[in-house]
Structures are given as C-alpha cells and as structure tokens.
Amino acid sequence: MQKETILNIGFDDTDSPKGMCTTYLAYKLVDSLKKEKVEFLDYPRLIRFNPNIPWKTRGNGAVALKIKTSKPDLVKNKVISFVKKFSDLKNGANPAVVFFESTIIPEEFTQFSKHALWQLISRNHAKKFAADHNLESFYIGNGQGLVGAIGAIGYRFSDHTFELLSYRKKSQFGKKRKLVADSVKQMQEKTYPRTFNSYDTKKHRVLFAPHGPDPVFFGIRGEDVGSLLVASNLVETQEKLAGHMIFKSNQGTGDHLQNEIDIHSLKPYCSGTVTGVVSVEPKIEKGGHVMFAIKKDDTEIKCAVYKETGITEHAANLIIGDKVCVGGGVRKASRKHSRILNVEFFQVLSLEKKYILVNPMCTKCKKHMKSKGQGQGFECVRCGKKSPTKETKQVFRQIKKQIYIPQMSAHRHLTRPQQRLGIVNKDVIFDDSALWFYANQN
Q1: Quick one: 307 and 377 in the same domain?
Q2: Based on the domain organization, do 334 and 377 belong to the same domain?
Q3: What are phi and psi of 186, to 5 degrees?
Q4: Number of Cβ atoms within 10 Å of the Cβ of 440
Q5: Is the peptide bond before 95 cis (omega within 30 degrees of 0)?
Q6: For the chain, what is the largest distance between any 2 Cα atoms, rounded to a whole number of angstroms?
Q7: In terms of domains, do 140 and 174 share one?
Q8: What per-residue confidence (pLDDT) applies to 384?
C-alpha cells in the first residue's frame, strides 16, 4: 500500500482582464481530483492580497488546496496540465503553481504571505524564496504568479469568511448574465447578517455578479457554508449553471490594513494605517474629492477621500487638531502630485472644539448687534449699546468619534463591511459531506 502524502497546492495569475478566473481553474481541478478519489482536508482557500498592486487583475486573489493523496506525482502533473489549459495565456496571464508536501506550514511562508497582503513583492523575490526552500514550482511567463501561489499556501487565518462562487457553462461565457435583481435583494434581506455585499439598496444595484467575460456567474459572501447554500437557492436566474464551489477566504476582513505604514518611507502601493493629527484643513477638489493632511512625528502625509466612497461629506467636516486613524494605500508620486494615501476608511479618535467668530450679543436685548462698518465696532439697533469686537462661539461638530467606511458599492474585496465590525470567525471544522462543491452533470 502506497504511503499517503499531505500536499499543499497554490496557484495564481491564471486570468487576465479579458477572461478566465483562477477560481474557475480551481473548480475544474477539484472536479477532476474528486474523480480520482483524492481526500480534501480543508475548504479551497481564496486569499486576496494587496489590492493596490497596479498590475493585478480584478481582486488580486490566489487559490490554495490541501489534499491527501497516495499519488502525489500524478496529482502534480494534473495540476500543471490544468494550469496550461485554463490560463488566459494569450491575454497576458503569468500563471504559477507551487507544491509543498507537509502537514505543517513553516513560519517563513506565513511571513511571506503577510508581506504580500500589504506591500509590493517582486517576482524575483518569490523565485528566490522558492529556490531557498526547495519548493517544487512551475510557471509560464515572467513568474509573477509565484507571489500569490506561495502566499496562498502560507496564509494563516485570524478571521475568515466564505464565498460561494457559481460558474457558467462554457457556451455562456461572454454573454450577458440574466439575473432577477429583486430575488437578489430579497435573498440579502432574508440572509442578513449571515451574508454581505450582494445588493446595494441605496443604488438599487446587484453587486455580487461580475460584468466581464469570465466564467463566474455570481459570488455570495457570508459567514458560514450553510447560509451561502440557503442564499444561493433564493437567487433566481434565467441560465442553467455549471455548478458551484465554496471557498474559505479573507474577504471582508480588512486584512490588508492590519499593517502600520511607515510614514517616513511611504513605499508606493503599500497598504495599511496611519494614526495622526489633521494638519491641513480638508478641501473639496474638482469632482467632489476631499483632500487633507495628517501629521505624525513631525512628518506630514496627504490624504485623498474620493467621491465614490460616499464618505467625503464626513471627511470634509474634519478640522485641524482632530486625531484620526486613516487606512488605505499609498499612491505612487507623479510629476504633479507627491505620494498620497488613498483613503479606504478613517476612524475619528478625538475631536477638537470648533469655534467661529460672531457678532456680539446685546446682553439687554438678547439680540446680535449689527456692524457699524469696517473697523467701527458693533451696535445694538434697539438700545444703542456698543461693542468693539466680535465674540467667539463654540459650534456643534457635524462629525462623531466613530469609524467611517465607504458605501457598499465602493467596497473592495477585502473591505470589512459595517455589519462585520467586531466579528471574528475562528477555526472552522471542514465538513466534506456538505455541498461545498457541486458540478451539474447535465
């Protein structure tokens, strides 16, 4: 009897902006491996990495599988053949797959994965990591996919969500998706708060279905497998689907913003948070975007809150001296602009008192005095009482000590939605009997 091997498989960068999807490759691969009687030890992982990488496709997601097999070489050859077959090579995909035979994932892998969440990791660094750790790997093109492939294996969950991805039949690729929008809205209402970000009730818009030519029909995100299965049965479609697969993911966890940005270096494309004091009053720019600056350790960083986030009105109400924690990604400097932190959320930690100058109040008549002209003081029109200067008055602040998160339609895959604030999902027991995978045989 052959000895069984624990095999970790990571792959990434199989898609392009014009088509295919790394999760679809995973779906087709799992379907094939199930027929080989391979034992799955955990849900497929869908790990989203730093969303500020400029050459990412869509959600910058990589996939990992953990299996037990007595035929590891057969499995590896199958994986490589699937990567070759289902990668969008003609449109610029640079796919890679990494194999690691072990029950325990070393700490170095976890550190690599953590760095991929918030900073830019070069493909040369990933190649060196693979060589230093004697990793079996395969890639086509420039090797960019190695970053996500290694990171997906090394990722360690501190919180998690799940996503049920439903796939189209090949004959439907590129065609318009036919969904009953009202059924999506009702599904969200019935499954709240166990699912999130499927339908934008403010803009009356379906959010969980892509618009491009890729194989995904829709993706429902939520807190547990059972809720996703219930939710998927509530969605009405006019298309016969190929099947679905449920991934364990870091989506909706705010994972990329756990790092504290080094304000003294401000590396382009890095993600994280900065806590400081507002040092430049917010200004509303053309297009409705709000710009301000915060200072920490005598170093200032410019911040941009874009209109699309829906939180510009709150950002505009900040004043100099307010203490805030700002989360986002560093935009690369250009000829016109220095490096800027593109704000994904901000939290008000403390508020300064705000004062304005007003005409003095007549203590006798209880009415504001009128100006007598520039430099001539003020006079009560009723009793004639005079005052030389204006008075300061404290005004109510139109902002609170709380966290401000973008509206749903502006969420990124990793954005932690309002309903998930304070929620942390711990380890979950993998149930291979559940319908985490389904392939329509018709």
Answers
A1: no
A2: no
A3: -65, -40
A4: 11
A5: no
A6: 107
A7: no
A8: 87
CB 76 within 8 A of CB 165: no
Global confidence as pTM: 0.92
Q: Tell me if 346 is assigned to some domain.
A: yes
Q: Are residues 17 and 98 in the same domain?
A: yes
Q: Are residues 232 and 323 in the same domain?
A: no
Q: Which residue, among 79, 63, 59, has the nearest Cα to 71 in the 3D structure?
A: 79
- Max avg pLDDT among 170-174, 271-275, 338-342: 271-275
| Count of domains observed in the chain | 4
At 442 the pLDDT is 66
Are 143 and 96 in contact by the 8 Å Cβ rule? The answer is: yes
Q: Are residues 330 and 182 in the same domain?
A: no
Q: Are residues 374 and 406 in the same domain?
A: no
* pLDDT tens digit sequence for 234-264: 999 989 999 999 999 999 999 999 999 998 8
CATH number at residue 307: 2.40.50.1010
Instruction: Provide the residue range defining the domain that includes 297.
Output: 255-351+397-413
CA distance 220 to 242: 16
Residues 242 and 188 in one domain: yes
Residues 343-365, mean pLDDT to the nearest whole number: 94
Instruction: Give me the pLDDT at residue 335, please.
Output: 80
Check: CB of residue 109 under 8 Å from CB of residue 121: no
Tens digits of residue pLDDT in 368-384: 999 998 889 999 999 98
